[in-house]
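Researcher: We're teaching a course module on how sequence relates to structure. For the next exercise, students receive a sequence and then see the predicted structure as tokens, so they can try to spot secondary structure elements on their own. Here is the exercise chain.
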Amino acid sequence: MAWQDTIVPIVRGLVFDLTSPYVYSCTRLEELVVVSAVLVIQELTFPISYTINLEAITITPDPTDEDFIALVALRTACLISHGEHRDAAKKAISFKDGPAFVDTKERAKYLGDLAEGACTAYARAKVNYQMGDGTLGRAIVGPYAAGQSSETGRRFG
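Model: And here is the predicted structure for the students to work with:
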């Protein structure tokens, strides 16, 4: 299955662009996914070496690594959310004329919170990947009992 058929629907879900007509075209999302893939491979090392071509909008070999797919999708959602927040912040106004009141600053704040959440999710996933599958607190457990020597098997006092 091509990355366009896996990563793009995940990104649509993450940015709540699920109903037709879509806010983002498939082509636009593919472009953003490729940009995000460049950013992700600059930050992290994967078992497979990916080649990203921004002009041709390609990722080769076709990603099958679930970690790579998830991280690129989360990074793309972060990128999109920041763009939406920036656009809303540029257009934010507050106007009061007598009893009439218009304020679009709250929408910009809400989109900023969404962007922060998307980027925090990416940052956490990145740390989890760097820590080795994100299972924090994992330990190697062997035949050890408190108060017993692991070499002789004798109990202490």
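Model: If you want an answer key for the exercise: The chain is about 50% helix and 10% strand. Helices lie at 3-14, 26-43, 66-91, 105-130.
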